[in-house]
Each structure stands twice: as structure tokens, then as C-alpha cells.
Amino acid sequence: SFFDEGNQFSIAAEAGAMSRIFKYKGSPNLVFYRELDRVDGEKEYRPLVTAKMGKPGRKILIVSKSPNGRMYAFAVDIGNIDFKSGNLRVVNLSKLEALVRIGEITQNIKPMGTYNFRLKGERTRFLVRLAIATIQESQPKLIEDRRYAVDKDRLELIVLHQDTTNPKKIGYTSFLLGDD
User: Which residue, 3, 45, 68, 88, could crosslink 33 as a Cys pair with Cβ 3.0–4.6 Å?
Assistant: First the structure.
């Protein structure tokens, strides 16, 4: 649950989950609370995680959980004019620099950085090469190298994040988003 101008809103916030696209125009920080029932039957709200929402706009909220149980929340602004159908956006939420290749284009993406890859193909759906590496001690360390299905008619997002079992590694999650 979270509160806005005294009104309570409840959403599911599961570790590793991503919200749907929504338009946000509230406070720059959004605090989520765990709703508990006290012994006397009253509701108690304990802060669970705070998401820095930034400026108003179209957002996706990503929630993750570390091995020690601490929750993290990140808001990703997807409303930029350059993120339309036919693009694949890579967001690096990890603490490591990443080298990402989509098709023939390779891009170095700094921590908390973003890059839009323009999808080029003769058909709507096609396969491209996806390669992801971290930069460790000035050398790339490959974490993924495979063929990846893309769709030019959809917004696609790949989120790079810290591996919760090993902070020296990164993992990734890919999402197809509605283009609304």
C-alpha cells in the first residue's frame, strides 16, 4: 500500500516483479508500506520500500529483493519521445558497467544508464544476436550470448540488475510492454 493526499492505494509488490505502465504525477518519492493487523484489530502500516519516481511521466516500477530480505524499488521513465515501437531499451540498474550487443550494434552502458537500440528487420518479428558482458578489471566478462526474438510493433525493455546471490555479477530480465 501507499498513501497519496491521505488516500490509500494498494498494489501487489513482489520481488522481481514489474508494474504495468502508468502515468505518474505525484511526489518524487513513493513510499510503500506493509499492511499488518495489530492485536487490537487496527491496521498498522510499516514502511517497506521507497521508490524515487523523479519527474512526472510514464513509468514502470520494478521491485527487487536482496538475499538479506531488503526490498529495492526503481522507477523507470519510459515516456521519452525516443522510446517508441521498433526500439529495444536497455536499462542498467546494476552497479557494474555493461557492454550490450543487439544485432549489429554494440553499446557500453554505464551503471544507472540507458540506451535505445533501433530494431531493423524486414519482418515484424525476427531474431537478433543478444550479447551482454560486464566490464571487470578493464576486460569484458560474457554473461549472455544467444539469439533473441524481437517484435518491431512492441516496446521492449531489458533491465540489467545486480545478481542477488553474487553482487559481482549482473542478471537481466526482459519485458514486452504495451505501447499506449
Answer: 45
